[in-house]
Amino acid sequence: MSSPAFTQPVFTNPQLAGLEDLAGTYVFDIRTSHRVLKLNRFFWNMIGAEVRKAFVDDPEASMTAAGLTDEEKAMIRAQDWIGLVRHGANFFVLEKFARVVSMPNLKVYAAMRGESFEDFMNTRNVPTMR
Fold this sequence. Notes:
By secondary structure, the protein is mostly helical. 54% of the residues lie in helices and 0% in strands. The protein is built from 9 helices and no strands. It has helices at residues 30-35, 37-44, 49-57, 59-65, 70-78, 81-87, 91-100, 105-113, 117-121.
């Protein structure tokens, strides 16, 4: 899975100065929250059984009704977890969505690291615990 092009934002908040130099750090601030509000609401709403069913029955209609961009829809279709985080999706609502598509957390983490599930599990202290 490849992530869409990503450029680090320029931060004007002095408390965030230097974060762009920390690899693997994706700031979720008020600007990001506002920019991807529809996406995070889409994932948050997965707490409702009727919303989950609507997505499972017709993902395209569900994403369109939520007002998602073509880029967001493509990342959801591809289950591009790290791409979604880089884009501004809140990880905690992504976990809700992962359940809808039957993706266990450990597999999401492996995908975010760009590793196979087996390779990821071999990096754990107890690789046989699943």
